[in-house]
Write a structure and sequence with these properties.
Layout (H helix, E strand, L loop, with lengths): L4 E6 H10 L1 E2 L3 H6 L2 E2 L6 H8 L6 E6 L8 E5 L5 E5 L3 E2 L3 E6 L20
Antiparallel strand pairs: 1-4, 2-7, 3-6, 4-8, 5-6
Length: 119
């Protein structure tokens, strides 16, 4: 299995995804025409840039191999390649999800084993 990719979702988005079995995207994803993901090396910057101070978040790890040709790696910040899904995310592709709490300084706390496969 390839290294997991990550989606930061609100609790409401994650609850709806589990209820329906698919995630069509957050408002920014719908506006851009694809679901934004990050690698383990990118997700902390994504959280800091787009989710500062948010406490109602889940970190969702996804198996990129389960997404097929709908997953594309495209340049973004400074030319870095980011995973973009041109389609919906099936809950069956999710490896695990965890809360994304804040520390006392307001910085998101990520799991120590970020980048590892299924739990």
């Amino acid at each position: 299995m390839a290294d997991p990719i990550y989606k930061i979702m609100t609790l409401d988005e994650w609850d709806e995804t589990r209820r329906t079995g698919v995630f069509a995207g957050a408002p920014v994803d719908l506006a851009d025409g694809y679901v934004h993901f990050s690698t383990a090396g990118q997700v902390r910057e994504t959280a800091a840039k787009h989710f500062t101070g948010r406490q109602d978040l889940r970190l969702v790890a996804v198996d990129p191999g389960a997404l097929g040709d709908a997953l594309r790696w495209e340049p973004s910040r400074g030319g870095a390649l980011f995973p973009h899904l041109y389609g919906t995310l099936p809950v069956s592709a999710v490896l695990w999800d965890r809360p994304l709490p804040l520390d006392a300084g307001g910085v998101h706390l990520f799991p120590d084993d970020l980048g590892q496969g299924p739990r």
